[in-house]
Design brief:
The complex is a heterodimer. Chain A is mainly α. Chain A folds into 2 domains: 89 residues, RNA polymerase sigma factor, region 2, helix turn helix motif (Rna Polymerase Sigma Factor, Chain: A), CATH 1.10.1740; 76 residues, Orthogonal Bundle (Arc Repressor Mutant, subunit A). Chain A contains 10 helices and no strands. The radius of gyration of chain A is 17 Å and the shape is globular. By secondary structure, chain B is α+β, with helices and mostly antiparallel strands. Chain B has 3 domains: 55 residues, no CATH class; 79 residues; 107 residues, Sandwich (Immunoglobulin-like). Chain B is built from 6 helices and 8 strands; from the N terminus they run H-H-H-H-H-H-E-E-E-E-E-E-E-E. In chain B, strands 5-4-7-8-1-2-3-6 form an 8-stranded antiparallel beta sheet. In chain B, a hairpin with a 7-residue loop joins strand 1 and strand 2. Chain B starts with a helix and ends with a strand. The chains are: A mainly alpha, B alpha+beta. Chains A and B meet through helix 2, helix 3, helix 4, helix 6 and helix 7 of A and helix 2, helix 3, helix 4 and helix 5 of B.
Chain lengths: 176, 268
């Protein structure tokens, strides 16, 4: 459930609400940021900036536009992509775009308590190659439906149904 | 609207990922408010994606919260309160320590002050004691001298000659106590005025027919002698005694204008 009252409290500048929001979303956003920059120190810096923006711009969030999670996700992805566009970052990291979130998950052995580690490992094993790409672009990179269609040279409608299928298989495993 | 069809279209996944246009997102938000099934579906999509990226995080970044709050100047209630409590405790201990030190210092200072005061008092008392001892000694000496004088005056061989005041000093009075045996005279000059600077009383023995004065001595250091009793030698067979005021050192013959007292010896 979207914590509407918590978000309202955040918008009222309640530090306790900010803490709760951080507990709820920070690790997930950290994963998204890390997947883009692939540097723990840089990812920490970006995460700090993201939560500072969340605090400062909380009143700009409006639930008629979308989910709070999606709003925060956009801030995190945009901040991370901004970093990858800097010259220093480009010189340091080459061919990063070739790496998928799946690689991180495959290499990783320990997961947070909130994560169904066995489910995630299982999911990676059964994941179809197009799911890897679609989830990477739509969720982790923040591509729009149109951008993803163009990137994968796939019709718009296909992107929609495939994203449904790919995420559905993840849900099936995590629910079981 | 067919809710099930709407859900399975895949639009909700795109909605959560933020892959829809602004227009499309607004529409989904409206539907979500209308249909609890759609909202539930959106929550499940969100939770699964949330788990997926949480799994991609290198570690839980919970240690960054304090740094972020610090940057935002948010008061960290959960962590600073116990620290402050500790501070309060140490502060109290510190205050007690300081208070004890100050109290001890004040104590030491007052003890030192008392000690100095006592020492000073002791000095004063000692000085007073010395002074009193001196006074007692003086009194003893004075008493002895007076007893001696009394003994002399009571002597039956003593001839007392009162000398009355004369023209220059009618109020003046003196007495001569003459011990004929030891040929000594004691001049009691208690009621003579103190001589002015540079002058001295001179005592004369007189024989009357013809009037012949013979000096028997000076009352030197007149003001120093408390009893004003002066002892002089008198070998003459005096018929009268007189005291004149003379220049210091005395004169050959009495200055009659400065005759202070005069008295004749009674013949019995």
């Amino acid at each position: 459930m979207q914590p509407d009252s918590l978000i309202a409290e955040l918008q009222n500048k309640n530090p306790k609400a900010f803490e709760r929001i951080y507990e709820r979303y920070s690790e997930s956003l950290f994963g998204v940021i890390y997947n883009i920059v692939r540097d723990q120190h840089l990812a920490e810096e970006i995460l700090q900036d993201v939560f500072i923006k969340i605090w400062n711009n909380a009143e700009a969030y409006n639930d008629s536009k979308g989910r709070f999670f999606t709003w925060a996700l956009n801030i995190a992805r945009n901040a991370s992509i901004d970093k990858t566009r800097s010259k220093a970052f480009k010189n340091k990291k080459k061919n990063l775009t070739a790496d998928f979130y799946v690689d991180i998950l495959e290499e990783k052995n320990s997961f947070a308590n909130s994560v169904d580690a066995i489910g995630i490992k299982k999911y990676i094993k059964i994941l179809k190659p197009y799911c890897k790409q679609i989830i990477e672009l739509l969720y982790f990179k923040g591509y729009t439906q149109a951008e993803t269609a163009e990137e994968l040279d796939t019709p718009l409608g296909t992107i929609k149904t495939r994203s449904r299928n790919c995420i559905q298989s993840l849900r099936d495993i995590l629910v079981k | 609207m067919n809710i099930q069809e709407y859900i399975s279209s895949g639009i909700l996944e795109l909605y959560v990922c933020g892959a829809l246009t602004e227009e499309e997102s607004k529409e989904v938000s409206n539907e979500l408010k209308k249909y609890p099934e759609i909202e539930k579906e959106v929550e499940q999509i969100e939770n699964s994606l949330n788990q997926l990226s949480t799994a991609a995080a290198p570690y839980n970044p919970n240690q960054l919260l304090a740094i972020i709050k610090n940057k935002l100047h948010l008061v960290d209630n959960s962590k600073t309160i116990p620290i402050r409590k500790e501070n309060k405790k140490t502060n109290i201990v510190l205050y007690i320590g300081w208070a004890a030190s100050i109290a001890l210092l004040i104590g030491l200072f007052s003890v030192l002050q008392d000690r100095n005061q006592l020492r000073e008092n002791l000095n004063v008392v000692n000085a007073q004691k010395a002074k009193m001892e001196q006074q007692i000694n003086d009194a003893h000496a004075s008493a002895e001298k007076k007893e001696e004088l009394l003994a002399i005056f009571r002597d039956k061989n003593m001839v007392t000659v009162p000398l009355d005041g004369q023209e220059v000093a009618p109020e003046a009075y003196a007495a001569v106590h003459w011990d004929k045996q030891s040929k000594k005279v004691y001049i009691d000059a208690k009621n003579l005025p103190t001589p002015p600077e540079g002058k001295e009383y001179q005592v004369w023995s007189l024989t009357l027919d013809p009037l012949t004065p013979t000096s028997i001595g000076l009352l030197s250091n007149f003001s120093d002698d408390e009893n004003k009793v002066f002892m002089l030698e008198n070998i003459n067979s005096s018929q009268a005694f007189g005291i004149t005021l003379e220049p210091k050192g005395g004169s050959e013959s009495p200055t009659m204008e400065q005759l202070y007292t005069l008295g004749t010896v009674k013949t019995s």
